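Holo prediction. Input below; ligand is nicotinamide-adenine-dinucleotide.
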Amino acid sequence: MDKRVLVIPGDGIGAEVMPHVLRVLRALQLPLAFEEADMGGVAIDRHGTPLPADTLAAARDSDAVLLGAVGGPKWDDLPMTERPEKGLLGMREGLDLFANLRPATLFASLAGASSLKAELVADLDILIVRELTGGIYFGEPRGVEVGNGGRRGFNTYVYEEREIARIARVAFELAQKRGGRLCSVDKANVLEVTQLWREVVTEVHADYADVELSHLYVDNAAMQLVRAPKQFDVVVTGNMFGDILSDVAAMLTGSLGMLPSASLNADGQGMFEPVHGSAPDIAGQNVANPLATILSAAMMLRYSLEEAPAAERLEGAVQTVLASGLRTADILPAGADDSSLRRVGTDEMADAVIAALDLAETS
Ligand code: NAD
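Structure of the complex:
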């Protein structure tokens, strides 16, 4: 039976890029059935809520969700609880997507776009695994209260053993399929909750003896990421540290328009989306880079749809297109007069990826 993919184009460049990404996916001729649903601003306009019940139900019934992006100035004045981004949070919660995977891969032809020296990042390939549904962002009690000494703000940093163990297992399994090394990041010298984190990750390691495990304090991990990023293979960490470190790792690769992500639950079902938002400043102009969403689709093929060879084919096609010199505006170096580079729009970039797929098949 065909695997079911729920496609959520969303708003801004999300809705603009998605039809092109679907063209690319269809060109792979895989046994997939695509269904579309609304989420975000478009869902507020059409259904009065950022996450209609039908969309969540369709997501639950699917094997994977492919999301464009949500949000935009039109909905910025709504109260926090009614804004487009609420749809994202609802989807994470509704599908129990606790594992966030953020690869930082640098295609050799884009090494110049990194904020670090090209030799430090050439062929960089790290994967940050962030716990997404627990930790200090969700811990109770939380709030701001007024006491005798003035106002007092507080949050609770809490992890249950089972939450740590399940994200550790995801990370160990990914490390087994990659370079065989896992670095767990904590602040065990100061925070008891992360002492427990370190203990549990170490205990889970007993089941993955083939993976080399190391531990780093988060401050050192941040330093190492910008000093010598290629030392890392897979990094696992909690929600808040992962939020920060995954953005640091993202900058190593240069462009927001190139970064995919995945969020998985315990059944391997996932939501796949570019790291970037709906980019209202460029939406509708055929200039958005579709590669982050195309690479998110490749992650979907690999992690939720058991189509790893197709994922590799797709990533290979992206590499071919970049090596041939095609660039959307965001990955074209400012003031470049390099005649080997050619500026293209969203549609032409997707066309080129499809053409490169055909080449890959016939070669
Ligand atoms: P953004 O990622 O949308 O844009 C930041 C900058 O990067 C902009 O200048 C934009 O033009 C550029 N950019 C982003 N993606 C690009 C691409 N594929 N190709 C070329 N250039 C690209 O972030 P923002 O401007 O802070 O947010 C805009 C809206 O998106 C807001 O409503 C925000 O809440 C929402 N948002 C949604 C998500 C999501 O859906 N997951 C994530 C982040 C932001």
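Residues 219 and 251 are 17 Å apart (CA to CA). That is the main takeaway for now.
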